[in-house]
């Protein structure tokens, strides 16, 4: 509990089952899926903390579900079978944090270019970037 | 973003055998955007056409991605408000209010009654200006140019109010942690009163122009139908969800600011098509005007920013020059390592922005910068719904559906 918000921490293997149970219990609206990189956070044990914000359209309750995963291969089961809203939200988390969503139908980058290799919202990625902008492939008139 | 060649497989594409592949040979692929006047902003649609029918659409975004969330980890809570202006730039004031609502929730600050009231007025004016543009754009895209000009003229009046209030017309950056940068002056109140009096006339004109216009109704009714279940499943919020029968409005469901004190209705429709979304927005403008009319006559007196003891908002000049607490507070707040105290905690604060639920998930780490500033933009989830709304309709309906979802690429890509 913090500022009147309830949050639940679930171990990664049970996350899908818990979320599908919560959906049956009336949390029918997936508000957001996002992630926090705790690389530089004081006292953090695991690196990535996924955030599922749930809400109910009938009772207006809210619930935050946290799932923690760690390097080297952060992965979690996709919730697209439960909510279609998760489709693009999970793509964005994959794009910016590099967390693999197992079972996602179309896990591509959402906001960054497809050729991009890094995951920019990770804390070890510098604010100014690593010069990728200058090395984007250029299509000249002859090749188009 | 590079020029991506042929789109990857469509869900309906993936042919099981060669015969199915041949049967789709006659389909035509059309690239719509990223630079197209009817997308209004920079987004791209790859449409698969059978003659004039849209068989499938693949929306693509990211052309305006500027790393707002990354910047949020490097700017202080007060500085970042300038970035929120650039998110949904057709109603920047609503973003300002949303951002500082989330920050104040993280910090546990209680606003003064006056601040709550004037923020409510400004947020509702921002809602009116947003709906004017989004409805105006639907009219414009379906051929009603005059309607758009009527709407845009009233947006000018609202810009004038904002300019009188804080000196900026477009990128206002008006809120601060624990208060606002400029309090209401008598001139601002007078201008809002005039607006409340004159706006219904324009609204009536606009309704007479379009609501029963045969061409417009034919273009929008039954187009882009979103059922209630699909809306909830897809995470739709705001007018898009309410037009499909979802009675969810954070102003009523989780009252924030001063919304509890005012009498207003939630506007809903059940059809879920473009016409319903247009009607919901039109009705919401009237309700917003009702809130403004009630609030402007009952602005509580007293301080607008929270007191010196809370140590978040800058003290007034009077306090700085005449009291020791004011001087110390002003001095410390201006120093980067002595600013206000932020708890090590995480919170999600959401407001009902004109476009839907606009929330910020903030992680505080004790410093004056957010450790993580996630923005929950309503546009992303609405844009993801687009393919299922357009399937089976004609190419000319693309602009009607796109306009009625009110997708703003700056908020979409951040």
Describe this structure in words.
The complex is a heterodimer of chains A (144) and B (414). Chain A is an alpha/beta fold and 144 residues long. Chain A has one domain (7-135): Beta Polymerase, domain 2 (2-Layer Sandwich). Chain A has two helices and six strands. In chain A, the strands form two sheets. In chain A, strands 1-4-3-2 form a four-stranded mixed beta sheet, covered by helices on one side. A two-stranded parallel sheet of chain A has the order 5-6. In chain A, a hairpin with a 6-residue loop joins strand 3 (48-55) and strand 4. The longest helix of chain A has 12 residues, at 86-97. Chain A starts with 6 loop residues before the first strand and ends in a 42-residue tail after the last strand. With 414 residues, chain B is mainly alpha-helical. Chain B has one domain: Cytochrome-c3 Hydrogenase, chain B. Mean pLDDT of chain B is 85; it is low at 1-16. Classes of the chains: A alpha/beta (144), B mainly alpha (414). The interface between A and B is large, with 46 and 49 residues.
Cα gyration radius of chain B (Å)? 23 Å
Q: Indicate how many domains the architecture of chain A comprises.
A: 1
Helix content of chain A: 10-25%
Number of strands of chain B: 8
In summary, what is this structure?
The complex is a heterodimer of chains A (144) and B (414). Chain A is α/β, with parallel strands linked by helices and 144 residues long. Chain A is 15% helix and 24% strand.
